[in-house]
Design a protein that fits this description.
281 residues, 7-stranded mixed β-sheet, 14 strands, 26% strand
């Protein structure tokens, strides 16, 4: 499978010259099968979703979007997704099961007076549905969805695999909600382990440093050190630090990644907007 990192920032977009190398768009990862076909599975719909249109050329999006949760930085790209907002598009959007219907939940922020149109104003064929924890086939990929702690609404992490490789995607993860854990960065709990065990690539929330975490542990995010330690415990191929703090400049993100990589037993790098990762390599 082929991963396109379309948005790697957290909380809010980060425009400006200090953020251009790592990228300022919020969470969005597009997944395609091997070959020249465009992506058919998208994880989250932050402002990075706009970039998926370019990956499709002149073609409409015909596939599925899995939302980890409903915070703005994971949904705000939806009304600006040109490949999905056209008459010949066919989009299935899934979100963690909760009091619905799904489209009504999205319409709480995407409708007047907060936005000019609601979900019914999107062109093409859109289907909105709830997703329960467990295993499901989506666009030919095997997906495991598990609930993970994150403040402010039900949140899933996803494990996506094909016949040859697997990735884990936990962009918003606040394990401190379950206790300090062995290292003081949060619990290494069963749901996280099930998602991450043995994957080729782990994309994980790394919004904070270990020093920052005590003051912000209640915000629902992880320290980069936790992401790396989880990857080591679960035998992953490599860790990509994701959901970068919107105030953390390119230089600061690189320093953070180099610091934790220097103490890690697995390869570690910062996720960079625009990167393409082909698995297996």
């Amino acid at each position: 499978m082929r991963l396109h990192l379309c948005g790697v920032r957290g909380s809010t977009p980060a425009p400006g010259p200090e953020f251009v190398e790592i990228g300022g768009h919020t969470s969005c990862v597009a997944i395609a099968r091997d070959g020249d076909d465009g992506p058919t599975l998208v994880l989250d719909a932050g402002t990075g979703l706009r970039a998926v249109t370019g990956l499709l050329g002149e073609q409409p999006f015909r596939g599925s979007i899995l939302l980890t949760h409903l915070h703005w930085d994971h949904t705000q790209g939806l009304p600006f997704f040109r490949a999905g907002d056209r008459p010949d598009a066919d989009v299935r959007l899934f979100l963690p099961a909760q009091d619905g219907p799904a489209d009504r939940l999205l319409d709480r922020w995407m409708s007047p007076p907060f936005f000019p149109i609601g979900t019914a104003g999107l062109h093409g064929r859109w289907q909105f549905a709830m997703l329960e924890e467990g295993e499901v086939s989506v666009e030919g990929f095997h997906v495991l969805a598990r609930e993970i702690p994150h403040k402010g609404g039900r949140t899933f992490g996803y494990r996506v695999s094909d016949a040859r490789s697997a990735i884990a995607y936990l962009p918003d993860h606040g394990p401190s909600a379950l206790g300090a854990g062995a290292d003081g960065w949060g619990e290494y709990h069963e749901a996280a382990g099930a998602l991450v065990e043995g994957v080729d690539v782990l994309l994980h929330d790394a919004q904070h440093t270990a020093d920052e975490l005590p003051a912000v542990a209640g915000f629902g995010h992880s320290a980069a050190d936790y992401a790396v330690a989880l990857g080591e415990r679960c035998g992953v191929g490599r860790v990509l630090l994701f959901h970068h703090d919107p105030h953390r400049t390119d230089d600061a993100v690189r320093r953070l990644a180099a610091d934790v990589a220097g103490r890690s037993r697995v390869p570690v790098a910062a996720a960079v907007q625009g990167s393409v990762i082909t698995l297996p390599q």
